[in-house]
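Hi, here's the filled form for the chain we discussed.

Project: internal
Contact: R.S.
Residues: 222
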Amino acid sequence: MRSTPPVFKLFIVAIIICALAILAPALWVSDWGRIPELVFFLTLGALAGSRSLRLRLGKGSKRCSKLSIGFPITYSAILIFGPAGGALVGLANGLSACIYPARQPIYQAAFNLVNSGLSAYVCGLVFLALGGKTGQFSLSFALSAAMSIVAYYFFTTILLATAVALSTCSHVRRIWRIWRDGLPWSAPGLVFGAILAVLATALYEVLGHDTPLLSIPVLALI
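And the returned structure, exactly as it came back:
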């Protein structure tokens, strides 16, 4: 079994330190007045784990895009609880994916966990920075949501391409090639997942205490 390249280990340590420096203060100062509802989303995120659906891109096409079941849950949490709450749900989803159905190697698990939490947090920050507000489904909301998805997509895929390049001892210049050849096809699944999340969030605002009803489609997929 090939050993993990030292440069990849340094990269993982660096992003873990960055994640702790960014997420720890954010989680500490956040308002956690909706704990039961947050626990509900954390549970759904953990149950979703690494499960995904394949979306075929066009009739007769052999190309597929994966829709992570955990992403709509995480994005709904971002819209409802803000960046910190979304990051927590992202971490719960990432942790579950790291240990089930198979336990990932320590450095791979650490990267995936940090990537899940940081990507969700960055996505939430962009949404708020552009004036997005939960429950106000207007043009401003649509633009903020769209740009937050773009930010999430580029942040998580560039980080992933960098990790792949460093873990295989590839030259840094290959990051672009790795991203171009393997990652753009995840965009359709991400967009579809975001649409599902917005619809679920709208239902959440309507149903209120009947929120557990929203879990029925997710549990059916799991």
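Let me know if anything looks off before we file it.
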